[in-house]
Amino acid sequence: MTLTTKSPDSRSTLAQRGGSALGDRVFSWWTLGTGLLVLAVLGLILITTVREAWPAFDAMGLRFITERIWDPNPATGDAIFGALSFAYGTALSSLIALLFAVPVSIGIALFLTELAPRRLRGPAVTVIDLLAAVPSVVFGLWGILVVAPALVPVYQWFHDVLGGVPVLGNLFGPVSSGRNFMTAGIILAIMVTPIITSISREVFSTVPRADKDAALALGATRWEMIRGAVFPHSFGGIVGAVMLGLGRAMGETIAVALVIGGSTNITANLFAPGNSMAAVIVQQFGESTGTYTAALIGLGVVLFAMTVLINVLAQVIVRRAEARMKGSR
Amino acid sequence: MHPDREAYLVNRNVLSRRVLVGVALAALALTGCGSNDNSTEPGGSGSDSGYASLSGELKASGASFPDAYYQEVIEAFKGEASNVTVTYNATGSGTGKKQFGEGLVDFAGTDSLVKDTDGVAADSFLYVPTVAAPITVSYNVQGVDKLQLSPETLAKIFQTDIKTWDDAAIKADNPGVELPSTPIVVAHRSDGSGTTNNFTKYLTAAAGDAWKLGSGDTVAWPASTQGGEKNTGVAQIIKQTNGAVGYVDLSDAKATQLKFAAIKNKDGQFVEPSLEGTTAGLEGATIEADLSYNPLNAAGASSYPITAPTFIIVKAKYDDAAKAELVKGFLKYLLNDGQDLAKEIDFAPLPASLKEKALAQVDKIQG
Amino acid sequence: MTVTAPPTTRAGAGGPDLTRAALSGRRRFSNHLATVAIWAAVGLAVVPLALVTYTVIVKGAGVMSLDFLTSDIPNSYRREGGGMAPAIVGTLLITGMAALMAIPLGVFGAIYLNEYGKQSPLARLIRLMADVMTGVPSIVMGVFIYLAWVLFVGQQTGFAGALALACLMLPVVIRSSEEMLRLVPDELRQASMALGARKWKTTLTVVLPAAISGITSGSLLAVARAAGETAPIVIVTGIVFAPNSNLFDGFNTALPAQIFRNASQPFEAAQDRAWGAALTLIVIVLGFTIIARLIASRFAIKER
Predict the structure, then answer these.
(1) Per-domain boundaries in chain C
(2) What are the residues facing B126 on neighbouring strands?
(3) In sequence order, what are the residues at sequence separation of 6 or more whose Cβ sits closer than 8 angstroms to the Cβ of residue A66?
(4) Is A196 among the domain residues?
(5) Rounded to the nearest 10 degrees, what angle do helices A181-205 and A118-133 cross at?
(6) Quick one: which of B268, B270, B287 has its CA closest to B360?
(7) Residue B64 and residue B92 in contact, taking contact as beta carbons nearer than 8 Å
């Protein structure tokens, strides 16, 4: 700035105000550098974890994913590390979570965009924000000390009523305790509801006013308007939102570790204890050595790959839906 | 704390650490192994001057089995050596050994012996036995207050070969006891653990062919069983669940008010877990040259058969002489005054002979 | 919900009847059903929130006191009394350090995306990867920091926890800051450039200040999220029972890790401390969230 006062030439004043071109270049490199940090961290995660997990992948090969037995200390023979049971637990608890969370989230999003009286909209948004703000470990604490014991009689009732029905009976099998796939799914559902809700809400709010008015003008009830104008328009976005929720549910560690039951188990019985990949890592990581540690890191690699895949897909779907919606506006 | 005082304390710490290093070096150079005689001297009453002059920080991690006991000792040690901070992180034996091998901690607690795969170099460490404790088979079955189990039945229960409490095998062990048809829920550790290791080793030794899951820090439990974090997590499951049975150390089982079964020992007697039974088991065990020993399934009519030893592993030689002095100071306290604390929280102190050997082992630590 | 008399038409009047009564029973019923279902959904979201809040407040308030906030953690779970001071110190320091690292870096990253990269393939890749990175499970981040940092420096420290949290915060800060920068009208940039200011100067003195409230509130939300992360803390920071204000030396702990450890204890004293810690954590997290909302609503750039 001091330069400006010295220089009588107005052109150079303009050019030099705020420093030289070098400053610009340095600044743009610096910001580029920070942007690249994201790629660097992701790359490093992939490299370090795969490298450290290699002994387990090497020893197990494809069986690491297809084998259901997880036995670090077998009575005879080599240790067996199969992630299938934990992958099943991750998938099942996440699916239960979506089963509960998706209808509720879409309902809340519709409420906020189509139904809510102005006075209620603010409080409803606050509820969702608060749900999102509660740390997952608090849900875990609540789950293990309050929900799990309280749900035992409920599960027992379901088992008593539906246990004898041919197909359903398999799902509602014997109850051993409140820590099982179902409880994990319920706790996860509460945790993914805010994220699905907020994205669905954004998607719904992009539905053109004209489409909705047109539907109503044709004599549609509100529900028919939602079915005919809102849903078709926002289908892609909703799918993306659900997948983001799925990604979140799959990666959740602590709350699941507390309530899922800690057992290596593949069963249709929703009331049976199981385990998830993330939970197994946090439970056993500290205790492991050698190939065992490598196998746990391997679980992390599989989990990382799965969540990245789901997130990329979800992002692509959401983006494409957004682009299409903008086009139609 | 007032900043001046803090600065003063820090200075004093630095000072005394320097002095200590000097003293330790001098002692090493001059007296050599002669110092052994001096340091074994302050047994029992000798807690006076030795500890107060120590200062610094000790970090440790490892077995959760003796955690409650170590934390008591650490608390009491604070009263003797106010300038020493000892932190013991009950991560489990596996982590303890791993972190010890990686140099993350100064010493580690472990229930199991060091294996090649643990990442600890073979001759770099020493075992120091600290206490022993019975592992109970705790249960929660409404209407059942007394339970006796033979090793074979125990194996069948934990393998889920037996599904309900009124199974013939359990009835055979408990003549005349009214048993309900409640389904059995087996609770075990979801984290790797020295307790699991000792319990499964016991089953391997005592139940013979009836036990098929092998032994180790983690074993492949049947699918329908429940896992809990640490001994206390298992205790929590048992407490919460009617029909549950699991293995928990005596101290945690008592603190949680769980009921536990009498187990049939090698001599065919059903013995309830108790400190006396544990000491009896220790006396029946053979002590190896490196002070490792195995009291599982020991002989003797009054021995409780599932008795777990626990060790602290220390470096044979610390890079930092002051660190070595701290470790020695703490362990001597643990083996002398600390042993009296054991019984109060349901751990069994070492028999006198083993305690002497352990103290001699501590003196071998070099700095 | 009951369907009343079938709506026979009043069509005799001539034109189509557009009143509600003209709807067929089935259509009216499904509309009703949908409305009820939507209201029920809102109720279903309120119930768990109310229950969690109620339990945490009731059980947490039972142990809450000045003593609880300032005492050391008892080193035995069984012992009664004690408090959570070390975990509160740890949470504040670790999260603070993480924010100190992640927010500046994240804001500069956002500046790259919005001011320089724009729609270039590289910028789009970074944007996509930032979104992907928000989905990386925190446990994976914990394992990563353990392998890449803890083993490297040879000790579990509070700083390792801060690094893990920073990695989790970074993409959130980048994306939310970028949104805010995008809201800054181009006219501001053009005006500044027209006055001869360099681009970097324009960005730092004109664009950034215009978006700063939005960036602050977005970053605070990221901080609030990070303060509740548990898994990485459990894996990389170890544990202490007395406050450790040095992030670079010695173990540390944080409220979420204490909640996790105490939650699976059978002892009532430990469970009480878990509830107390949960209440403290929620108050801290809510504090950040509320401040963020206030800043956002008070200083928000008016929507496009």
Answers:
(1) 24-63, 66-298
(2) B314
(3) A82, A84
(4) yes
(5) 140
(6) B287
(7) yes
Query: A204: domain range?
Result: 80-328
Residues of A in contact with C48 (CB under 8 A): 131, 190
Residues of C in contact with B87 (CB under 8 A): 238-241, 250-251
Closest CA of chain B from C157, distance in Å: 10
Q: Which H/E stretch holds residue B134? A: strand B125-140
Distance CA A72, CA A69 (A): 10
Q: The pTM is what? A: 0.84
Q: State the pairing for strand pair B226-228/B84-89.
A: unpaired
Taking alpha carbons only, the member of B307, B140, B302 closest to residue B226 is B140
Element (H, E) at B234: helix B230-240
Which residues of chain A register pLDDT less than 70? 1-20, 325-329
Which residues lie closer than 8 Å to C266 by C-beta, 6 or more apart?
Answer: B232, B235, B236, B239, B252, B255, B256
Whether residue A26 is contained in a domain is answered as: no
Q: Are C250 and B59 an interchain contact pair (Cβ–Cβ within 8 Å)?
A: yes
- CA–CA gap between residue B285 and residue B271 (Å, rounded): 17
Q: Which residues of chain C are modeled with pLDDT < 70?
A: 1-22, 299-304
How near does any CA of chain A get to the CA of C242, in Å? 22
CB pairs under 8 A between A and C: 278
Number of domains in chain A: 1
Q: What is the pLDDT of residues B213-254, one digit of tens each?
A: 998 888 999 988 999 988 888 999 999 899 999 999 998 899
- The CA distance from A97 to A143, in Å, is 14
Measured CA to CA, the distance from residue A250 to residue B3 in angstroms comes to: 48
User: For an interface test with C, which of A17, A28, A36, A37 has the most C Cβ atoms less than 10 Å from its Cβ?
Assistant: A37
What one-character-per-residue DSSP string does chain C give? ----S-----GGGSSPP-SGGGS-HHHHHHHHHHHHHHHHHHHHHHHHHHHHHHHHHHHHHHH-SHHHHHSPPPSSTTS-----HHHHHHHHHHHHHHHHHHHHHHHHHHHIIIIIITTSHHHHHHHHHHHHHHTS-HHHHHHHHIIIIIHHHTS--HHHHHHHHHHHHHHHHHHHHHHHHHHS-HHHHHHHHHTT--HHHHIIIIIHHHHHHHHHHHHHHHHHHHHT--HHHHHHS---SS----TTSS----HHHHHHHHHT---HHHHHHHHHHHHHHHHHHHHHHHHHHHHHHHHPPPP-
Q: Does a structural domain hold residue A173?
A: yes
Q: Quick count: other Cβ atoms within 10 Å of Cβ B307?
A: 28
CATH number at residue A244: 1.10.3720.10
Distance between CA atoms of A31 and C118, rounded to whole angstroms? 13
A33, two tokens: 């550098």
Instruction: Kindly provide the b/e burial profile for residues C77-106, where b requires at least 16 CB atoms within 10 angstroms of the residue's own CB.
Output: bbbeebbbbbbbbbbebbbebbbebbbebb
> Is residue B114 within 8 Å of residue B230, measured between CB atoms?
no
Compute the half-sphere exposure of residue A65: CA atoms within 13 Å on the CB side of its CA. Answer: 8
Percentage of residues in chain B with pLDDT exceeding 90?
48
Among C240, C258, C82, smallest CA distance to C158 is for C240
| B191: nearest CB among A71, A85, A283 | A283
Residues on chain A touching B227 (C-beta within 8 angstroms): 261-263, 273, 275, 283
3 state SS of B37: helix
Residues with Cβ within 8 Å of residue B30, at least 6 apart in sequence: none
For C45-60, how does the pLDDT look when each residue is reduced to its tens digit (9 = 90+)? Answer: 889 989 999 999 999 9
Class of domain C66-298 (CATH, top level): mainly alpha
* A243: in domain: yes
The partner residues of A261 in beta bridges, in order of sequence, read: A274
Going from the C-alpha of B234 to that of each of B137, B245, B261, C271, the distances in angstroms are 11, 9, 16, 15
